[in-house]
Write a structure and sequence with these properties.
With 309 residues, the chain is an alpha/beta fold. The protein has one domain: Carbon-nitrogen hydrolase (Nitrilase/N-carbamoyl-D-aminoacid amidohydrolase, 4-Layer Sandwich). Helices cover 26% and strands 24% of the residues. It contains seven helices and 15 strands. Helix 1 packs parallel to helix 2. The N and C termini lie far apart (43 Å).
């Protein structure tokens, strides 16, 4: 049976400062504003407590990484308990010596750390030098989890929280339909995509509008194709970086319903978005557009190949 409606909050904030405490304080203030407006499940942006440091190669940035559980997640666990909210907390994770991940901790409303999603797709582009800093998430045994025979903590997965069943993917993951589809098949009511995406200053005039449109469109398509809610908080504002032209993060955080309709959307400025999601709409949408029913699962073996030409 469908679960009760739940209210989602997204915090779109500037986090370009090297002052980690100031970044965390702004995020906590955003969580509190979302809670005041009724949000029950609140997601922060990718690498929320730090500048987007991947603009160049600098071994010193590895010192930002911390374990999960660790200081930041423990602080956010206390906040979740205080406010009775579920939190998605994306940080730079030190899993072991020399093993660093772009991760998101999932914290239930009683402060329990439910688990960690580790970004699966790692980009390598000018000013987005993520392959230097991040080990991709391990695939885990997704097939066994789909059959309910494994609780493997790696790969694509969902978490049943007090208010709803959620899936988490991170930024570059949002360009891949496979991750969205698998997470939806695992039972997610909503897919969260904490993000750090923006314009190269030299490209904005030529490509800026199209880049934002493409970013919004791909996430809307995940909502429609899978009949789930999708919520994507992006960071905002210009971040300078020595030796580069910096990046202007374009915000435009958004929440879609399972039919691809916009429930809430932001501009480029820091803000908090809030929208109520009713899982009954998932049932209704999938009855009328039964994409999951009509999949030809017997014909998709080639998807596991990188190229079939």
């Amino acid at each position: 049976m469908p679960n009760a409606p739940f209210t989602v909050g997204l915090v779109q904030e500037i986090a370009g400062s090297r002052d980690i405490e100031a970044n965390v304080a702004r995020a906590i203030a955003g969580v509190r504003r979302a809670h005041e407006r009724g949000a029950q499940i609140i997601c922060l942006q990718e690498l929320f407590n730090a500048p987007y440091f991947c603009k160049s190669l600098d071994i010193g940035w590895f010192d930002l990484a911390e374990p999960i559980p660790g200081p930041t997640t423990e602080r956010m666990q206390a906040l979740a308990r205080e406010l009775d909210v579920v939190l998605v907390v994306p940080i730079y994770e030190r899993q072991a010596a020399g093993l660093y991940r772009n991760s998101a901790a999932v914290i239930d409303a009683d402060g329990t750390l439910l688990g960690v999603y580790r970004k699966m797709h790692i980009p390598h582009d000018p000013l987005f030098e993520e392959k230097y800093y991040f080990t991709p998430g391990d695939a885990g045994d997704t097939a066994m989890r789909l059959e309910g025979r494994s609780n493997d903590s790696n790969g694509f997965r969902t978490w049943t929280t007090r208010y709803g069943t959620i899936g988490v993917l991170i930024c570059w993951d949002q360009w891949y339909p496979e991750g969205a589809r698998i997470t939806a098949l695992l039972g997610a009511d909503i897919l969260f995509y904490p993000t750090a995406i923006g314009w190269h200053p030299a490209e904005k005039a030529t490509f800026g509008d199209d880049q934002v449109t493409a970013w919004r469109t791909i996430q809307r398509s995940h909502a429609i194709a899978n009949g789930v809610f999708v919520a994507s908080p992006n960071r905002s504002g210009f971040e300078a970086h020595p030796g580069t032209d910096g990046i202007e993060f374009f915000g435009n955080s958004v929440i879609y319903d399972p039919f691809g309709r916009v429930l809430a959307e932001a501009s480029t400025d820091p803000t908090v978005l809030v929208a109520t999601c009713d899982p009954k709409l998932i049932e209704d949408t999938r009855r009328n557009w039964p994409f999951l029913r009509d999949r030809r699962v017997d014909a998709y073996g080639g998807i596991a190949s990188r190229y079939l030409g």
